[in-house]
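Task: sequence design from structure.
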């Protein structure tokens, strides 16, 4: 069984969602720990000058709101099981 952490973010000025990263793990516990680490440390493409971030946890992952100097963007991390 393989567990995945998938990072989706808005990588263009049109704010279209794109899968930007994916990581595989052999167990759910490791995948969830890595998702939390990425929620706190991942550097998204936008905004260019991050000032703060809010990490929101929900079923199966996180939504991270990143406040920049002139705009706000967010990205999401999902913890998923390959079937």
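Answer:
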């Amino acid at each position: 069984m393989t567990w995945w952490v998938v990072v989706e973010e808005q990588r263009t000025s049109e704010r279209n969602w794109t899968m930007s990263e994916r990581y595989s793990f052999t167990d759910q516990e490791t995948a969830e720990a890595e998702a939390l680490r990425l929620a706190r440390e991942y550097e998204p493409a936008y905004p260019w000058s991050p000032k703060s971030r809010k990490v929101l946890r929900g079923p199966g992952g996180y939504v991270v709101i990143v406040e920049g100097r002139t705009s706000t963007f967010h990205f999401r991390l999902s913890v998923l099981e390959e079937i």
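The longest helix spans residues 28-41.
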